[in-house]
Every structure is written in structure tokens, then in C-alpha cells.
Amino acid sequence: MLKISHISKTFNPGTVNEKKAIEDLSLELKQGDFATIIGSNGAGKSTLFNAICGDFLTDTGSIELDNKDITFMPQHARARSIGRLYQDPMRGTAPGMTIEENLALAAGKGGWLSHTTRQEKERFREELKKLDIGLEERMSHPVGLLSGGQRQALTLLMATMNPPKLLLLDEHTAALDPGTAEKVLNLTRRIVEEHQLTCLMITHNMQSAIDLGNRILMMDSGNIVLDIGGEEKKNMTVEGLLEKFRSGAGKALDNDRILLSD
Ligand SMILES: Nc1ncnc2c1ncn2[C@@H]1O[C@H](COP(=O)(O)OP(=O)(O)OP(=O)(O)O)[C@@H](O)[C@H]1O
């Protein structure tokens, strides 16, 4: 579903601020693969997502999505096939619009309820009900009144209502309290399974990286240094993962947030 071949990205080349953020990175994801990504500070995790989404063109290499070369495709065109959630729950929804209008936006109705049929509204209610946080009773409330966790759950629903070819989750639970984060993670697991989505999830929570998905990718210095799947992932522990990283990257994992969260 996703084939990244030898991409590189250097910011501010030829200046004192030159930074090689991605270096000759390759990655293939099969349809339905759900890979979690952990890595050191500044390893290039978000930059990898930005490259896939077309926030910038990479200096080298190519990116294919569903057998289509998207290397030079503009960002807005890629957005039709790629769903993305950020750490900030305020992104991804329109705060001044109601829950129902936001869903109408995600359903391609331009946010106009007058363009939305009764069946579609019923579907919105059913989908909200499945989130199990009572949003189906608040469909006419502005999204700006929701809590961070409620908003992130809604963003997840909106990003997957028309299932994307690829779902990118960039620490989407990091700004939530632990209980809410757990709920949103369970929801993530359910939605990804239900739609058989191909998904990449950056997290600083080692246990989540182990518990979710079928692959763990570990990043360091602009590249993927470990790709763990199958039985090895199923039997993995946080200590085992730290040890693997040490042997794979030749140094200890240095990520402030990982160290603080564990
Ligand atoms: N637009 C940019 N201009 C210049 N440097 C950048 C830019 N975006 C990222 N970088 C640099 O590229 C490197 C990789 O950044 P990136 O945000 O991808 O790391 P990350 O793995 O997501 O890190 P963290 O876990 O700390 O969020 C960092 O050194 C960062 O400062």
C-alpha cells in the first residue's frame, strides 16, 4: 500500500543550520499493516509524516501509495487518500461548527446540513454512538465546547469516515490525560481493525507501541534502525525494546518524553 524508496531530506542545506532530517529511508507497508513508530528526539519521525503528506518535496527517492507514484503530487491531492491526526486536539476539526456540521464536512458535504440526507445524519449518529462517549446526544453542539479527548475521538472518526488509504497518527494521544489517552487508543485500535486500515502511529509510549499494531519501527538519525514484527513483536517487552534499540542504533534511546512517561 505504501512504498517509500530511498528518501532524504536536508533542511537549510549549505548553511550553518543545515540539518539532515531523513537519510536514505525506505519503508514498505502492506494493506492492513499497522506500524507503531518510536525513536529518539529529532529522529525524523514527524518529518517522515510530512514527507508522505507532501508538506515538502523530498531531495531524493520516491513515494508510492496504492501503486501510484505520489512523489511530486501536491499536498492537497494527497490529502484525499491520507488521513492525519496531530498531537494537538485543536487541529482537524472546525471549532465554530457543530459536531454534525463537522461530520458533514468529513462526509464531503461541505459542512452543509441542508445537503445532508436523513440517512446520512442517522449514520453520523450511529458512528458517534460507537465512540461511546455520548457525542450522539450533542450533535448540535459546537465542537469548540468539547474536551481534548472528545475532540480527538471526533477527529479520528472524521479522518476515517471515508476510509483513507493511509492513516498517520502523530502522537495523537500525547496531550490527553492517561485515562482519556487509553480510551482514544482503544478507539484507534477498533477503527483501524474495523476498516482494515494501513496505519503508521508515532508514540512516545513504549507500551502502546508494543500493544498496538503488527509492526514496531524504531527510528534514529533520520532512518529506520529496527523493524520488529510477528512473534518477536508479540513477545516484546519495554526492556526488550530498549535493549534492541541499543544494539540496533549503537546507543541508548534518548527521548525525553519516553523517559518521562516510563
Ligand atoms: N522545517 C524544518 N526546518 C529545519 N529543521 C527542521 C524542520 N523540521 C524538522 N527539522 C529538524 O529535523 C530533525 C527531525 O525533526 P522531527 O520533528 O522529524 O523529529 P521527531 O523524530 O519527530 O522528534 P521528536 O520526537 O523530538 O518530536 C530535527 O533536528 C528538527 O529540528
From TrEMBL:
Its main location: membrane. SMART domains: AAA. One of its GO terms (cellular component) is plasma membrane. Keywords: ATP-binding, Cell membrane, Hydrolase, Membrane, Nucleotide-binding, Transport. One of its GO terms (molecular function) is ATP hydrolysis activity. The keyword Transport applies. It is a peripheral membrane protein. It holds the Pfam family ABC_tran. It comes from the Bacteria. SUPFAM superfamilies: P-loop containing nucleoside triphosphate hydrolases. Its EC number is 3.6.3.32, 3.6.3.-. It is an enzyme of class 3 (hydrolase). Residues 2-246 form the ABC transporter domain. It is found in: Cell membrane. PANTHER family: NITRATE ABC TRANSPORTER ATP-BINDING PROTEIN, TAURINE IMPORT ATP-BINDING PROTEIN-RELATED. This is Carnitine transport ATP-binding protein OpuCA. The gene is metN2_1.
